[in-house]
Amino acid sequence: MATKAKERFTAGLAPGARGEDVTALQDYLEHFGYLAAEDPEHDTFCGPSYPLGDGDDLAVLEDRPDADAGSFDDATAEALRHLQAYAGLRPTGEVDEPTAQLLNSKRCGNADQSELAEFSTSGRKWATNNLRYSLENTTPNITTGAVTMAMQQAFAMWSAHSPLRFTQVAASAGAEIRIRFATGAHAATGTNDPAFDGPGGVLAHAFYPSVPPAPVTAIMGDAHFDDAETWTVTVPPQAGHTDLVTVAAHEFGHSLGLGHSSVNGALMQAFYGGPQRTLHADDISGLQHLYGGVTLRHAAWIHGTGVQVEVDDNVESIRRYGFYTRIIGKPNTTNWYHFAIPTPVIVAGSRLNWHRALLRFVTGSTSTVVRDVHVYDGSSRIIAHQAVNLGGSNAMAVFGVPHKPPVYWGAGISIGVTTGAGTASERRIDLISGGVDFT
Ligand SMILES: [Zn+2]
Ligand SMILES: [Zn+2]
Question: What's the whole-model pTM score?
Fold first, then answer.
């Protein structure tokens, strides 16, 4: 599959210019919500645009500048400055080198809301916390099993910080969130579902839920992925490949009602910046603004001194301190460390449900990382968080369990650790505690 990214825009376009390049820039600015649309039917970009229906804030739309098509006028410059400010670039109002790079980069197809300083919600949310998703098809580059795991991991990022529960159902079941890979024009009859643009540019788009109590339509919540991209679940991705877990998690944010954030490091930022398999505090604020926090029924922890090492040969030294275990791995090795957490499966006469696993640890450098986190109930693995690659100080890293099943036998957390080169101090990991939250 072709992977050459689009080079639609070149630097040098400035106020006063006229022609097709200016029209292309204006199309971009219109589509992503920075410029009033001349002709809403003429939309060469690829996502559901505002307004979507009842409850959208029309005042935001009416404030957008109105440009003269094909002419780089003041309105176009003003809209471009808003985009530059949103993306953290110098608001020059012309297409300089960093701006051309931005315009050519991979991004989400949904519109931005440039007026908002931090996470924005669309005012839309689901009336239930029990959401179902289905995989309508898959992508040729990855096995169906790996796509399924990628979707579980992406949903788990959101379930870990909210009362939401995500269960996979059959494609025929009428799930709230239907996941589909498609190329080019792919709208079902009667839906406003823009075409995809080929490799690069727009990667995916997703549809917001309704504003309660407005009715829910079938396409609401759905997430579509441009199959002209070369998707991968391998981290780091090969050149030109795009991380499916990251993009899926971002799109599911829209499926839940979150808009684009302008906060650097937020998963809900519109531009793709490589693999990001954990939420930022800004994403969590947005999510909890819509769905609230979680009331726990129980929590269980074990100190890091309880950890079991899988491959002794890859350990240079291991020492147990008061509450934690310090392990120095041999250079350029991998290993698995296991926490078995004493779990009361029945509390006050009823069985607990999984909410999430938690880890407290510190690594000596960013080349020694917790790569994978697998969560077990007895001997059954219930979720794999792959390639999270967390290094440095992690006071409370959380790993969701998307479907939040009952706990039957007891919790286990297995962590895959990659130890890089470097000094002993750089190769160390301090395992402080492992825990589980239950509802
Ligand atoms: Zn988006
Ligand atoms: Zn679509």
Answer: 0.92
Gap from CA of 261 to ligand 1 centroid (Å) = 9
* CA 90 to centroid of ligand 1, rounded, Å: 22
Q: What is the pLDDT of residues 381-425, one digit of tens each?
A: 999 999 999 999 999 999 999 999 999 999 999 999 999 999 999
Q: Which ligand is nearest to the CA of 187?
A: 2
Cα(134) to ligand 1 centroid in Å equals: 20
Residue with tokens 């309704």: 210
Q: Which of 30, 97, 251, 426 is catalytic?
A: 251
pLDDT tens digit sequence for 268-279: 999 999 999 999
Ligand found nearest the CA of 254: 1
Q: Which residues contact 25 (CB under 8 A, 6 or more apart)?
A: 9, 13, 72, 76, 80, 95, 103
User: In sequence order, what are the beta bridge partners of 338?
Assistant: 308, 414
User: Hey, what domains does the chain have and what are their CATH numbers?
Assistant: 20-108 (no CATH), 130-291 (3.40.390.10), 298-438 (2.60.120)
Q: What is the Cα–Cα distance from 195 to 127, expressed in whole angstroms?
A: 29
For the question of residue 251 being annotated catalytic, the response is yes
pLDDT digit string (tens) for 7-65?
Answer: 789 999 999 999 999 999 999 998 888 888 755 444 444 445 444 444 455 555 566 78
